[in-house]
Amino acid sequence: MIKKCLFPAAGYGTRFLPVTKAMPKEMLPILTKPLIQYGVEEAVEAGMNTMAIITGRGKRAIEDHFDISYELEHQIKDTSKEPLLTEIRSLIKKCTFTYTRQIEMKGLGDAILKGNALIGDEPFAVVLADDLCINQEGAGVLEQMVKLYEKYKCSIVAIMEVPEDQTYKYGVIDGKEIEEGVYMISNMVEKPEPKEAPSNLAIIGRYILTPDIFDVIKNTKLGKNGELQITDALMSLAKNGMVLAYKFKGQRFDCGSVDGYVEATNYLYDLEKSGS
Asked: pTM score, two decimals?
């Protein structure tokens, strides 16, 4: 069983300036919950109970959110507002939250490597909180991926089809489909220009990684934009073993962009109003 989920949350969130000057982008609310809480809930639904969060300067609000606020609890005790804390209280009770800092922004690969001390020598999930994933018709994306891991016991990335002119925004894979929606990766390219992209199958912010990824990252050279890219490390794993890509069931919103954030807010608002 995969019990730990890593949340890289040290980035600056520059696409949302000026609000992210003092507020972590992971704490931006979709309706009444911050983005990172949706990710934690998804991990819990997939059977995970230890959340390893990579933070940075100015991110204390994340730690405070997943903690008891005694003054607030006292003020709203036995009032109509108290039930509003039911969900977050449940998460705090169910989960252990651990934290470490990424001192310099050196890419997603470096952020994941910083989590080695929190994860140890076991397989784990990775969630990028600004990718909000919702599946109204069944299991969440991480739960789907955990079931696939139980079958293949290898690293897995979540993928979706994107317009061919948008490949420069993503890591893009190529591979052979070995069962419906599951690809054995033969190539991965970080943010290729459309004419250089091997396909239109783009990696989004959900991963299941085996612990050997840490040693691979340590031996990976700096890549695109002078950063340590997890795509490059996973390509090394794919050459020496097997890495799968999974076309997940559900919908993904890019809440790191204003358009995606507004789309996600409207989508969940409509769901709540309809009682779904």
From this structure: 0.93
Residue spans of the domains in the chain: they are 4-274
Phi, psi torsion values for 150, nearest 5 degrees? -60, -25
Output the pLDDT for position 115.
95
pLDDT in tens, 197-242: 999 999 999 999 999 999 999 998 887 777 888 999 999 999 888 9
Which residues sit opposite 261 in a β-bridge?
Answer: none
Mean pLDDT of 246-253: 96
Residues 257-274 have a mean pLDDT of 94
- Sign of the C-alpha dihedral, residues 174, 178, 179, 184? negative
Over range 85-99, report the average pLDDT. 94
Q: At residue 55, what are phi and psi to the nearest 5 degrees?
A: -110, -175
3-state secondary structure the chain: CCCEEEEECCCCCHHHCCHHHCCCHHHCEECCEEHHHHHHHHHHHCCCCEEEEEECCCCHHHHHHCCCCHHHHHHHCCCCCHHHHHHHHHHHHHCEEEEEECCCCCCHHHHHHHCHHHHCCCCEEEECCCEEEECCCCCCHHHHHHHHHHHHCCEEEEEEECCHHHHHHCEEEEEEEEECCEEEEEEEEECCCHHHCCCCEEEEEEEEECCCHHHHHHCCCCCHHHCCCHHHHHHHHHHHCCEEEEECCCEEEECCCHHHHHHHHHHHHHHHHHCC
Query: To which CATH superfamily is domain 4-274 assigned?
Result: Spore Coat Polysaccharide Biosynthesis Protein SpsA; Chain A (3.90.550.10)
